[in-house]
Amino acid sequence: MKQISTRFSIAVHTLSLIAVTPDCTGDFIAGSVNTNPVIIRRIMGMLKKAGLVEVRPGVGGAALLKEPDRITLLDVYRAVNVAEENQLFRIHENSNIACLVGRNIENVLQAELKDAQLAMEYRLAQTTLGQIIEKFQ
Fold it and tell me: Which InterPro entries does the UniProt record give (predicted)?
């Protein structure tokens, strides 16, 4: 079974680390996440493009562009493109239309999956990075 990308959890880890350790470098973040610095640079690029962080070239270092209480988990989720084309769930293609289930499964399941994604996104919008950081204490 295909899993949701780890970009989201790495991005939350990264932003949390930047919030509690100002001016930390990509190598420092990679050490905390225990991953390759290239992965951190890619995610930092996505977070920068979304207006969540600024990255200083040269010596390095990163800073949040918003207070942690103003960054929601939904902001992070959207910044790192966890879901392809805003579609968290995909439905298999080419079902047998001669079959009762095969010809109807996509239409029946599509509404349920869209509702599930909206519920998840609503929940992510209710939690801020600041609330996550408070739980580290």
Answer: Tscrpt_reg_Rrf2, WH-like_DNA-bd_sf, WH_DNA-bd_sf
Instruction: Please report, for residues 31, 48, 67, 117, 118, the alpha-carbon distance to residue 63 in angstroms, rounded to integers and kept in the order given.
Output: 18, 10, 10, 30, 30
Q: Exposed, middle or buried: residue 124 (CB in 10 Å: 0-12, 13-18, 19+)?
A: middle
Domain boundaries along the sequence of the chain = 6-134
Q: Partners of 63 in the beta sheet?
A: 54
| Cβ proximity of 44 and 14 under 8 Å | yes
Number of Cα atoms under 13 Å in the Cβ half of residue 75: 22
Task: Give the fold, CATH level 3, of 6-134.
Answer: Arc Repressor Mutant, subunit A (1.10.10)
The angle that helices 37-49 and 7-20 make with each other, rounded to 10 degrees, is 80
